[in-house]
Write a structure and sequence with these properties.
The protein is mostly helical. It is built from ten helices and no strands. It starts with 7 loop residues before the first helix and ends with a helix. InterPro entries: Homeodomain-like_sf (IPR009057), HTH-type_TetR-like_transc_reg (IPR050109), HTH_TetR (IPR001647), Tet_transcr_reg_TetR-rel_C_sf (IPR036271).
C-alpha cells in the first residue's frame, strides 16, 4: 500500500498545501496556525484553501492522514522469499512504532495539541486508521495462507493488532525510563515484538 495521493496537478497542489501546514504546525503548533499562514507558505489564496478545507483542523486531519500512512507503509520491510507474513508484520509494526514516536509532527502534536488525537482514540476511526486496517488485513490474509498467522476473523484480528500497536505508539513515552536499560524504549519495543509474535503465532 502506498500513501494516498491525488493524481495530476491537484495532487501536487494538495501536497504543497499539506507541506505548508506541516511547517506551520512544527513552528507554532495547531492552535496558533491560521489559514492565512498556510496560504502564504503554500503560495495560494485563502479562498483556494476554503474551497477544500473549512478550517485548520480539517487541514491538519488530512496532513495527519498523509503522514501517518507514509510512516506505516515506509516501515514495512522489503519482502524476501524466506520471510513469512508474520515476520513481515511484526518487524514492520515494531519499526512503525519506533518511527512514529520519533516523527517530528507526531511529537509536536503530543507535546502541544494532544487533544487532536483524542477523537481517534475515544470516539471514531480516522482515515489513516482505516487505511492501516486494510494493510493489516491484507498481510494477515497472507499469513493465514502461508500458515504463519493464527487463523481468526480477519477484520477482528486486524483491529486487535491495531489496538495493541496504537497503545504502544501513544503511551510509550509515559512508561519508559531511558536511564534504566530494562525500561528503555527499545526494551519496550522488544516486548511489543514478543506480544505480536505470541498473538499471531498459530
Amino acid at each position: 500500500m502506498t500513501p494516498i495521493r491525488h493524481n495530476g496537478s491537484a495532487g501536487s497542489d494538495n501536497d504543497a498545501v499539506l507541506d505548508a501546514v506541516r511547517d506551520c504546525v512544527l513552528a507554532v503548533g495547531v492552535r496558533r496556525t491560521t489559514l492565512t499562514d498556510v496560504a502564504r507558505r503554500a503560495g495560494v489564496s485563502r479562498m483556494t484553501l476554503y474551497r477544500r478545507w473549512p478550517d485548520v483542523r480539517s487541514l491538519v486531519g488530512d496532513l495527519m492522514t498523509r503522514e501517518w500512512i507514509a510512516v506505516a507503509t515506509g516501515a514495512m520491510p522489503e519482502r524476501r522469499p524466506d520471510m513469512t507474513a508474520r515476520e513481515l508484520l511484526t518487524v514492520g509494526l515494531v519499526d512503525a512504532v519506533r518511527d512514529f514516536v520519533a516523527h517530528p509532527l507526531f511529537r509536536k502534536i503530543l507535546d502541544v495539541d494532544p487533544e487532536l488525537l483524542l477523537p481517534y482514540v475515544l470516539d471514531r476511526r480516522g482515515a489513516s486508521q482505516e487505511a492501516l486496517l486494510e494493510l493489516l488485513a491484507d498481510v494477515l490474509r497472507e499469513g493465514h495462507a502461508d500458515g504463519s498467522v493464527r487463523r481468526a476473523p480477519v477484520e477482528r484480528q486486524a483491529r486487535s493488532v491495531l489496538l495493541i500497536v496504537q497503545s504502544f505508539t501513544l503511551s510509550l513515552r509515559t512508561m519508559t525510563d531511558e536511564d534504566d536499560p530494562e525500561l528503555s524504549a527499545e526494551a519496550f519495543l522488544g516486548e511489543l515484538r514478543g506480544i505480536l509474535e505470541r498473538t499471531l503465532t498459530p
